[in-house]
Amino acid sequence: MDFRLSEEQEALRESVRDFAREVVAPAIAEHYEQHTFPYEIVRQMGKMGLFGLPFPEEHGGMGGDYFALCLALEELARVDSSVAITLEAAVSLGAMPIYRFGTDEQKVLWLPKLLSGEALAAFGLTEPGTGSDAGGTQTRAVLDGDEWVINGSKAFITNSGTDITTLVTVTAVTGTKPDGSKELSTIIVPSGTPGFTVAPGYSKVGWTASDTHELIFDDCRVPAANLLGERGRGFAQFLRILDEGRIAIAALAVGLAQGCVDESIKYAKERQAFGQPIGNYQAIQFKIADMELKAHTARLAYYDAAARMMAGEPFKRQAAIAKLHASTIAVDNAREATQIHGGYGFMNEYPVARFWRDSKILEIGEGTSEVQRMVIARDLGV
Ligand SMILES: Cc1cc2nc3c(=O)[nH]c(=O)nc-3n(C[C@H](O)[C@H](O)[C@H](O)COP(=O)(O)OP(=O)(O)OC[C@H]3O[C@@H](n4cnc5c(N)ncnc54)[C@H](O)[C@@H]3O)c2cc1C
């Protein structure tokens, strides 16, 4: 058992770390404040090959693996989570369903631009009336000749309304199964299709430089060939995508938690109180030690889940554990880092204020903490 990174993995981590510090850090506060999408940062991430990390070269990818994506997400989130979630959603929710389930034609048509970062894809599962209970999907798609006609809406969809968004994969009810349950399928809807409206961006507490919209489908027609994979496989498809995505979100959460440690150490050395740096006080030292402990153990949890997934072993429980643990400790670390910064921690100019605002969603997106517990308990046979 060897938890050390290979030379190649270490090199990737360092290059993303440098990029995060040199390119993301100086620019992101303004995007965060203005709620603008960081197109130039995304363009440079594309040039670095980050959007193609876990995909084979034959589709325009970098020939890496899912763990490489996780390393990149951790390093980005150590500096900023809006940028990290843009990459996470683009790869694991956007391009991955097409890579995993798409036909050869769909892959040739969509993957090259998605893997180069020139275009983004979104994943539309959640609806205004149903999130955790994704089986409660109301959006319907009816086959009319050689076209699907889609009606319904999707809520909180990441990367769905940028200037470079090229498609959204939408889960929809396409019929009724013999046992009376809903038949769910996934359909590719290209941006700009008549009847597909992207609502104005949400006003969010955090991730304010990431792109999130409600999507409305009103007699939206797409070719029958836009079905992703087999009809009726929508439920199984999104479960697979979410299981994997949880490992990526765990990596992102570990990055945020580690960023809190970085900023707290820096501040504890600088800030003076009662005649000495606050880092001299054991109360502060212990907070930082506990934060490091949490980031470290959460990192091991996602390494374990990623290793199992890449080995082709069952990983559902481990992915849920990693996501649940990493998101919980990210919130803990953000709270403590803010506390260490005192009043300045409440000022938006300090990165820890951003970390604090960005941490909470990690306990909600891609399956709430309650849902992770349900997944773990079910897997244990409870
Ligand atoms: C910024 C942002 C970006 C997002 N991006 C995307 C995206 O790109 N694509 C996408 O499809 N979705 C996206 N989502 C949606 C996200 O995945 C959902 O918000 C999440 O899954 C929770 O669903 P919900 O909001 O409907 O909450 P609900 O399911 O209504 O849950 C409300 C509360 O009830 C609890 N609960 C529900 N059922 C149970 C139960 N059986 N037992 C115990 N407790 C329960 C939940 O844990 C939660 O605390 C995004 C959300 C946000 C905020």
Describe this protein's structure.
The chain is globular, with a radius of gyration of 21 Å. Strand 2 (140-144) and strand 3 form a beta hairpin. 51% of the residues lie in helices and 16% in strands. The chain is of the alpha+beta class. It binds flavin-adenine dinucleotide. Residues 89, 93, 122-126, 131-132, 156-158, 204, 207, 212, 361, 364-368, 370-371 line the site of flavin-adenine dinucleotide (FAD).
Using brief descriptors, characterize the structure shown.
382 residues; four-stranded antiparallel sheet; alpha+beta; binds flavin-adenine dinucleotide; 10 helices; globular; single chain
How would you state the average pLDDT, rounded? 97
The ordered H/E elements are: HHHHHEEEEEEEHEEHHHH
Total beta-strand segments? 9
Cofactors, ions, other ligands? flavin-adenine dinucleotide
Name the poorly predicted regions. none
Radius of gyration: 21 Å
| 3D shape | globular
Main sheet summary? 4 strands, antiparallel
State the separation between the terminal residues, measured CA to CA.
Answer: 30 Å
| Number of discrete helical segments | 10
Q: Give, in spatial order, the strands making up the sheet with the most strands.
A: 2-3-7-6
